[in-house]
Amino acid sequence: MTDQNPLYQDIILEYYEYPRNRGRVEDADACCQGNNPSCGDDLTVSLKVDQATIGPVMWDGHACAIGEASASMMTEAVTSQSADTARAWVKTVRAMITGRGDADETLELGDIESLRVVRNRPARVKCALLAWEAFDEALTLAEAVHARPRESTDA
After folding, report:
1. Residue range 2-27, pLDDT digits in tens
2. Letter string b/e over residues 29-55, b meaning 16 or more CB atoms within 10 A of that residue's CB
């Protein structure tokens, strides 16, 4: 199949057929939806943040093979990372896929490198970035929740 369409490399198809971390995080600190009306992709990313470390990150919904594979790769890359490292992942993947911005050269892309193929296909860029953008927004919301002062139960 990869000879017919270079978008659907074996690694992308493997992540699509055997998704990682699909579902919803129970008692999530934040959930954000990513939607691409032009192709019908609709994903929700949920996460927990434990102190300064990102706890479980999961995604749910439906998207094309590239969107779902990218969501699975994203959860593996950012789980158990600091918020700063997770944001470096988002920035790096965005730069790799769009060809704009700065990448963190210290990150080992591994399987995520397979998403580079969408760079020359503008209609697929949003598919590949959908979960990453939703994650970035969810992380911002989760950090805001943890930054709020807790209400005192003392009277």
Report:
1. 445 565 689 999 999 999 999 999 99
2. bbbbebebeeeebbbbbbbbbeeeebe
User: DSSP assignment, residue 110?
Assistant: G
Q: Which residue has the tokens 């706890």?
A: 55
The C-alpha angle 54, 127, 62, rounded to 5 degrees, equals: 75
What's the N-to-C CA distance of the chain in angstroms?
Answer: 67
Question: Tokens 């769009």 identify what position?
Answer: 98
What 3-state DSSP class applies to 140? helix
- With a pLDDT cut of 70, the percent of the chain lying above it is 91
Neighbours of 110 (CB within 10 A): 11
Tokens of 148: 């709020």
Domains detected in the chain: 10-146 (3.90.1010.10)
**Residues found in the chain:** 155
Q: Which residue has the higher pLDDT, 71 or 149?
A: 71
Q: Is-contact 125 119, C-beta < 8 A?
A: yes
For residues 60-80, average pLDDT: 97
Q: Is 66 helix (H, G, I), strand (E, B) or coil?
A: helix
